[in-house]
């Protein structure tokens, strides 16, 4: 589940980067002296937060590899907030009544010289798609954090894994039910993972098995 969320975060970051490169708004100006001028604003120029938010998604994808439990929930919340922010940036471009004034300010041209404007919906649409992907990834991370068992055996030290092996064999688990790593740890300690623990043989030191 975490791997799927990581893949979605990477896809979302790439989609957001693509949205930042696409044209979002175009403004046309004419000062009465020269030829009419057209200025095209990309997504990164219209919303400077797009690229940083894409980097946040990539950082969250990397962080999901190293954190579990409460920290993974915190990453999920961060991704959800980031997704909501991305959605706001995309939708605001759609619903903004007039993009000409803001476009002129961003293009650094006089508002008095404006003769027309045009908005492009593809960039903002891809940003909204990236937001949806981020929200789905946040849900998967939150679910993974809720279902993960703390202190899983694969993260335990060899002694703890060996104790887990003995406990499983005592409960009737077969050697096939154990992980290969657990069996190798038990063998490294000089014990048979498929046998039940018994009294030490005469003349042997139980603390020096296999030495």
UniProtKB/TrEMBL annotation:
Going by the UniProt record, its keywords in alphabetical order are:
Membrane, Transmembrane, Transmembrane helix
* Pfam families recorded: Trp_oprn_chp
Which InterPro entries does UniProt cross-reference here? Trp_biosyn_TM_oprn/chp, Trp_synth-assoc_CHP
Return the annotated region ranges for Disordered: 156-211
Q: Does the keyword Transmembrane apply?
A: yes
Q: Which superkingdom heads the taxonomic lineage of this protein's source?
A: Bacteria
Q: Which residues cross the membrane?
A: 45-67, 74-96, 120-141
Give the compositionally biased regions (Basic and acidic residues).
160-169
Task: Spell out the NCBIfam families in the cross-references.
Answer: trp_oprn_chp
Name-wise, this protein is TIGR02234 family membrane protein
| Protein's organism | Mycolicibacterium diernhoferi
Q: What is the lineage of its organism?
A: Bacteria, Bacillati, Actinomycetota, Actinomycetes, Mycobacteriales
């Amino acid at each position: 589940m975490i791997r799927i969320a990581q893949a979605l975060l990477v896809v979302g970051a790439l989609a957001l980067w693509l949205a930042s490169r696409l044209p979002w708004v175009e403004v046309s100006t004419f000062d009465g002296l020269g030829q009419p001028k057209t200025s095209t604003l990309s997504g990164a120029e219209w919303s400077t937060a797009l690229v940083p938010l894409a980097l946040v998604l990539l950082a969250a994808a990397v962080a999901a590899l190293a954190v579990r439990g409460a920290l993974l929930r915190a990453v999920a919340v961060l991704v959800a907030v980031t997704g909501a922010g991305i959605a706001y940036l995309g939708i605001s471009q759609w619903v903004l009544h007039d993009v000409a004034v803001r476009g002129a300010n961003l293009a650094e041209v006089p508002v008095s010289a404006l003769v027309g404007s045009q908005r492009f919906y593809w960039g903002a649409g891809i940003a909204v798609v990236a937001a949806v992907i981020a929200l789905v990834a946040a849900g998967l991370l939150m679910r993974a954090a809720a279902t993960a068992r703390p202190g899983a055996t694969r993260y335990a030290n060899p002694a703890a894994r060996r104790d887990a092996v003995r406990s499983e064999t005592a409960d009737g688990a077969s050697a096939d039910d154990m992980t290969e790593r657990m069996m190798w740890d038990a063998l490294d300690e000089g014990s048979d993972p498929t046998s039940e623990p018994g009294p030490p043989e005469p003349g042997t030191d139980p603390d020096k098995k296999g030495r």
